[in-house]
Amino acid sequence: MEQDTKAFQRVYTKLFQLTKATVSLQASGVGNEELAIVDGRPAQVVKIMDDIVTLQVFQGTEGIATDAEVIFTGKAPTLKVGDDLTGRFFDAYGSPMEGSKEIMGNEVEVGAPSVNPVRRKQPSEFIATGIAGIDLNNSLVTGQKIPFFADPDQPFNQVMAMVALRAKADKIILAGMGLTNDDYLFFKNIFDSAGALDRIVGFINTTENPPVERLLVPDMALSAAEYFAVEKNEKVLVLLTDMTLYSDALSIVSNRMDQIPSKDSMPGSLYSDLARLYEKAVQFPDGGSITIVAVTTLSGGDITHAIPDNTGYITEGQLFLRKDTDVGKVIVDPFRSLSRLKQLVIGKKTREDHPHVMNAAVRLYADAANAKTKLENGFDLTEYDERTLDFAKAYSEKLLAIDVNIEVEEMLETAYQLFAKYFSPEEVGMRQEFVDKYWKDN
Amino acid sequence: MKTTGKITGIIANLVIVETEGNVAQNEICYIKHGDELLMSEVIKIMGEKAYIQVFESTRGVKVGTEVEFTGHMLEVTLGPGILSKNFDGLQNDLNKMEGVFLKRGEYTYPLDVKKQYEFKPLAKKGDSVKAGDWLGEGTENWIPHKIMVPFKFNGNFKIKSIENKGKYKIEDTIAVLTDDDGKEHKVSMIQKWPVKVPIKAYKDKPRPFKIFETGIRVFDTLNPMAEGGTGFIPGPFGSGKTVLQHNISKNAEADLVVIAACGERANEVVEIFTEFPELDDPRSGRKLMERTTIIANTSNMPVAAREASVYTAMTIAEYYRAMGLRVLLLADSTSRWAQALREMSNRMEELPGQDGYPMDLPAIISNFYSRAGFVYLNNGETGSITFIGTVSPAGGNLKEPVTESTKKAARCFYALSQQRADSKRYPAIDSLDSYSKYLEYPEIIEYLNENLDSKWTENVHYAKDTLLRGKEVFEQINILGDDGVPIDYHIKHWKAELVDFVIAQQDAFDKTDASSSFDRQSYMLEKIVNTCKMDFEFDDFEEVGAYFKKMINQFKQMNFSEFDSDDFKKYEKAVEKTLKERRVEEGSEEDEDKAEEKSKEKKSAEPKEKDDKKESKSSESKDEDDKKESKTAKQKDKDSKSKKQKDKKSKDK
Q1: Is there a cis peptide before residue B488, judged by omega within 30 degrees of 0?
Q2: Which of A121, A268, A340 minimises the CB distance to B356?
Q3: Is residue B398 within 8 angstroms of chain A, CB to CB?
Q4: CB B119 within 8 A of CB B174
């Protein structure tokens, strides 16, 4: 804490109401959302009624006595931003997790105002990840926000780390909410061993930390992202994992504040709360951008639950992972995944035939799914059905699997090879000019 | 003497103020937070205490801060210069704001004070006038803009003086009116109006009796919207709500379009900002943006302003309606507005209704929808607001309060179906689940039959019945299997597919197919209905699908060709040839002949000999791979067919 602010700090020592998460006391001159320290623990003003101030204590109130010391800091949560954020990991309050070296730089308030919609640019830059299930079928664009809808047992963190490392982003900002310590170490090691630490900033709340602290993590991460995107005109990729645990923390707080829950015991403001974060994804006019890749874990694949449902209305598409038992690999599901912004880049920033190859392959894959149903229902397969099944296997293995790492051109070539191996040009039904130009008979 | 007060409590964006003096419900006030003025609205008064919702973040606001009340409700400024503007929910001109980020407490004037507008008097000195009467006319972009007696003026007035034709700034006095007491009132080109109060400066509001042409067949033909009507589109995410709304705004028969982007994705608003100034308006040949106003309150902007945004949009629409214009108002999405109401109701600790929404939600929604409508103005001219809102039902479940309340208020219901979206049948509106109450209005039926085709409504019902029968038999086919049902079932199913593919489906991205004129719709409907009334003969159910697929493709090629062009006629001939292959002349002949008589294409279908069958069989073998036995396969098969046709279509381009 700096010396000059200390002069204005007001100290109180009489609490008159304590709940699991909040303390109330008589105080004056306190601003809404101001930070305070209660018995050494960070807290934030959530309600003021006359001279009664209610504070939410992030770590919980266990052991706090009615004579605990309360210090108001006179400011909302802030983060010091500067170039030496890079390569380091911070806790939910923006303090370095290891090493005592404080960040030098400007102090900015987190959760700053939104971008004026008329100042935004239409996203138009393709983000290559090397994963064909994403690049080929669900291309990502700078300034986009897109979550993985994944079951907890799926390797979403691994895929996300892969996306982050391969995407040619200037900065990768990891916001870990309720990460297990193992996953935190996984991210740390994988970034370290990839030699990418100079592009990484991490804000981490693990399961060892109090859940309510999580609420600060995305704000911290996005404030850092805004610094790099606005001040440095950099392309920033923000990873939010796991937004379901973030939302759970929201419901804990609203519950302790006696608010009336809406669907699935989530607060009524869930949509606005999530939108406030996701809408930080933006393409700035001066070249900087913030792209958000998030994870929303599902329970039992249910996407009608309030969290994935509200998320789906906010984000620009969603990605689904699935284990393909035929090839024994995790693939990006081509049917349920969708990138709403892909139209802005495919065939424009990538090769002209990209959208057509994408559609043709997915259509043939759908034919294979039908053939499979037929097989399961005990119907006879036609010769064409057999070929679609063979194609589907190869398509899964060579393109959809998440361990694929190739350039878009190569993906398109691979697709043509598979087409030619199993089908005639008429069966693939591509536009003739592309067949003439790109089709290669094996 | 303005009322002031002091803050005594803060819970998120709900602030409690102890007032000294009178305050009114919904009065606007400003919190004096340092140099910033935070705009707020009174939403509840308890004794000395006023509960206000703040349109901005309340971070840092302290108890004891002074609040100044303005004495008026949330108002918009109405005058020339509204068109082509991008406003936020409180009618701040977003383009005038500095910097990339929105600053708290920054408010910008919505119009251009310095710009000069044409003015030509329509009334003269000595005329007796009242609120809403036209004093003069200017032009805004290229649309005539009426300068009216301010809506707030109560009673009768006499024109004492009025300016001559010329160019004036919006704040210049263009007329002086005297009231009954002889008091003088100056009138400029602008006026203010509180957004939550409907503008009622009209003589009469009849039931809608005219059809509102959108160019989209699933609307116009199957579930028509009336001019001055109301409708809503609920749909789960990813089912194409936004594309549909954009398409309506591009093609609908409206003089101008007001779009309220209420709590939706910012990048979608950016798409409108980027594309509309470039898009050609098919009706005027100018740019679409010239007749469009956007009220943008994206999901990350303050919640209370989101609630205001739909009212701001409606008031602007009412202003233009009073000029005798046809206004199309689109709101995407009204669910976000309802959620904003829920958040406030929650903070005020009101007893909640279903799903935590306020108890009066249904009333608020129906009041809002009732502001749309067709009106006769005092001078006998007509104007209208046609309102289409979208609803984003939680979890895609249509039994939630916002959808249910809207269903009671809106007269048309356009059900977007996830299943149709998944199988790429666009627009993904399920024509059977959807309805238009206007199709039951006698005045609408009369209008349709007189202006379009004497058999129009009959044909529409026939087409819908065909779809319904098709759906029923398809369920049977699914249960009993392809060969477990009579061939007739397959024919019925495929006739429904014919209606679906040729009438209900439409390619929003195809230059020609994107918008279909009424003449064209009427022509195609007649053709399709006649085809559905014909009898066909097949030996085997597998032949049915192949045959109809071929026919559907030919009909679709007609859709993709300019109406009445050579290409159009070429495909029409191809359809006739196909029909001859399988058509049989039997008992239903009589009906057919009647239909034929009225058909504009009399020669179209002549009874056919069965000899042609062989020929057609050989053509079917091309579709060999399309033959699927299992029912699911069959379903998918059709989907892939539609995709193939899309590809074919792009080839044609």
Answers
A1: no
A2: A268
A3: no
A4: yes
Task: Using the predicted structure, report yes or no on whether residue B178 has a pLDDT greater than 80.
Answer: yes
Q: If you write DSSP's letter for every residue of B121-149 in order, what string do you get? A: ESS-TT-EEETT-EEEEEEETTEEEEEE-
Residue A162 in tokens:
């892969």
State the SS3 of B456-480: HHHHHHHHHHHHHHHHHHHHHHHHH
Could you report the per-residue pLDDT of B538-571, keeping only the tens digit for each?
988 888 988 998 899 899 889 989 999 999 999 9
Q: Do residue A33 and residue B59 have CB atoms under 8 angstroms apart?
A: yes
Answer for the pair B502, B556: CB distance below 8 angstroms, yes or no.
yes
Substitution target in B55, B65, B270 with the highest count of A β-carbons within 10 Å is: B270
Q: What are phi and psi of A397, to 5 degrees?
A: -70, -45
Q: Three-state SS for B549?
A: helix
Cβ distance of B267 and A33 shorter than 8 Å: no
Architecture of domain A78-109+142-315: 3-Layer(aba) Sandwich (3.40)
> Taking a C-beta distance cutoff of 8 angstroms, is the pair A30, B63 a contact?
yes
Q: What is the pLDDT of residues A209-255, one digit of tens each?
A: 988 899 999 999 999 999 999 999 999 999 999 999 999 999 988 88
| CB contact A310 to B (< 8 Å) | yes
Q: What percentage of chain B reaches a pLDDT higher than 70? A: 89
Q: Read off the pLDDT of each residue in A357-373 and give the average, rounded to a whole number.
A: 89
Domain boundaries, chain A: 8-72, 78-109+142-315, 354-438
- Quick check: A314 and B342 CB within 8 A? no
Instruction: Please indicate whether, in this complex, the C-beta atoms of A430 and B647 are within 8 angstroms of each other.
Output: yes
Output the pLDDT for position A415: 94
> To which residue do tokens 């005594």 refer?
B8
The two structure tokens encoding residue B200: 């009622």
**B233 touches B390 (CB < 8 A):** yes
Q: Name the helix (H) or strand (E) containing B257.
A: strand B256-262
Q: Report pTM.
A: 0.86
Question: What is the rounded average pLDDT of the residues A294-303?
Answer: 90
What are the residue ranges spanned by the domains of chain B?
A: 4-73, 116-192, 211-448, 452-652
Count of H-run helices and E-run strands, chain B:
17, 29
Mutate which: A22, A30, A32, vs B, most B CBs within 10 A: A32
Architecture of domain B211-448: 3-Layer(aba) Sandwich (3.40)
Element (H, E) at B144: strand B143-148
Could you tell me whether strands A41-49 and B14-20 are parallel, antiparallel, or unpaired per DSSP bridges?
A: unpaired
CB atoms within 10 A of CB A209: 18
Residue B597 has pLDDT above 70, yes or no: no
Give A-chain residues touching B18 at CB under 8 angstroms: none
Q: Are B360 and B205 in contact (CB under 8 A)?
A: no
Are residues A97 and B247 in contact, defined by beta-carbon separation less than 8 angstroms? no
CATH classification for the domain delimited by B452-652, as one of 2.115.10.20, 3.40.50.300, 1.10.1140.10, 3.30.310.180: 1.10.1140.10
Question: Residue B66: how many CB atoms within 10 A of its CB?
Answer: 13
* Residue A77 near chain B (CB below 8 Å): no
CATH 1.10.10.10 fits B4-73, yes or no: no
Summarize the confidence of residues A20-25 as an average pLDDT: 90
CA distance A131 to A148: 14
Instruction: Indicate yes or no: CB of B100 within 8 angstroms of CB of A305.
Output: no
Tokens of A214: 């999580």
Nearest residue of chain B to residue A280 (CA atoms)? B300
- In this structure, the number of other CB atoms found within 10 A of the CB of residue B158 comes to 15
Query: Tokens 């970034």 — which residue?
Result: A191
Minimum distance, in Å, between the CA of residue B397 and any CA atom of chain A: 9
Quote the pLDDT of residue B593: 46
What is the rounded CA–CA span in Å between residue B186 and residue B160? 10
Is domain A8-72 in CATH 3.30.70.2740, yes or no?
A: no
- Asked if residues B525 and B459 have their Cβ atoms less than 8 Å apart, the reply is yes
